[in-house]
Amino acid sequence: MTGPRTKRLIPIAVLVLLAVVLWFTLFRDGRGGAGDDLIASGTVEATEARLGFPATGRVEAISVREGDAVEEGAELAFLDRLEMTARLEQAQAHVVSSRALLLELERGFRSEEVSQARAALDAANRRVDDAKQAFDRTKRLLEGGAVSQEAFDRAQVARDVAESERTRAEEQLRLMEAGPRRERIQAQRAQLAQAEAAVHAIEAGLANLTIRAPFDGIVTVKHREPGEIVAGGTPVLTVMAPDDRWVRIYVPENRLGAVGLGASAAITSDTYPDQEYPGEVMYIASEAEFTPKSVQTTEERVRLVYAVKVRITGDSALTLKPGMPADVRIALEHPPS
Strands, E, within 119-209: which ranges? Predict the structure, then answer.
């Protein structure tokens, strides 16, 4: 038989149950008394670059330490470059010599060289005249029986040799006056271009032996030490962009429509519970993160969540670090009823 005390406890239990249901309805999605905010937990992330060398080699030096701030383009580490530097110097010397030869061909022969060729031709003409006179004299003497046939043959050979030398001197003078052939100049230009291409290829190889900062950032991890042999693509340093950090949270499907790009947010962390950092919504995923991506019942559809990135806009001291858990409160555009 139910006593009076039991009857009095039943209404109290009902009221407590109703209060629990009401609290769950109001606060289950992170809505406080104002009903205009969405609260979600996530993790701080940042743009990071894991930097390595395209080529395999021995690490000669690493010029930064963990925590150092670096500027875009700064040299952070490099492999042994002695052999490649020597090859570059050799290729550059080849370029210098090829360019000098091309310049000489384009300018043609010097006036002094042309004058020397003319003088050589004049000398050849005089030798021809002397040889002809000697030949004519020897011929007359031979007809008079004053010299032998052998002497006549020698005079004839000397005349022929002098005429041949004059022909060569004439050809040499014509070549100098005309200058180098166009085909030879073009061939030399091609050799110069080939030498310059070799220099560019070696310079590209040297660039692959150096790690440079891809952006302004902070060195967060030093994976290797000088003297180690590293394979191509192996991370040597990790650099973080401190101005590009965000908190990744997940919003239920039934609350997604109230979250807009650019919406203001407040970020807190367990490490610094009394500090609040401003932020704004920078990205809303277009597809649900969980599978299956399409379900049939209403009860299951509301369990789908969408990734949302909230950019950290007011943490110049870099208090919020990648990997740190954080809570985000977003001001909704039109809170659901």
Answer: none
Q: Are residue 95 and residue 75 in the same domain, yes or no?
A: no
Domains held by the chain: number: 3
Residue with token string 């010097």: 110
186 and 109 in a single domain? The answer is: yes
CA distance to 99, 100, 198, 277, per residue, from 92 (Å): 11, 13, 9, 56
From CA 116, how far away is CA 177, in angstroms rounded?
A: 12
SS3 146: coil
* Residue 323 backbone zone (phi > 0: left; psi -120 to 50: alpha; other: beta): left
* Structure confidence by residue, pLDDT tens digits, 25-76: 434 444 344 456 888 888 999 999 999 999 899 999 999 999 999 999 999 9
Residue 297: per-residue pLDDT: 45
Verify that 308 and 326 share a domain, yes or no.
yes
Is the residue at 6 inside a domain? no
Q: Give the pair of three-digit tokens for residue 277.
A: 């950092």
Residue 302 belongs to domain spanning: 32-46+241-331
In a domain, 145, yes or no: yes
pLDDT value of position 1: 46
Q: How confident is the model at residue 14 (pLDDT cuts 50, 70, 90)?
A: low
Q: Where do the DSSP E strands lie in 56-179?
A: 57-62, 69-70, 75-79
> Domain for residue 4, yes or no?
no
For residues 175 and 114, membership in a common domain is answered with yes
What's the Cα-to-Cα distance from 237 to each of 47, 53, 78, 233, 322, rounded to whole Å? 14, 10, 11, 11, 16
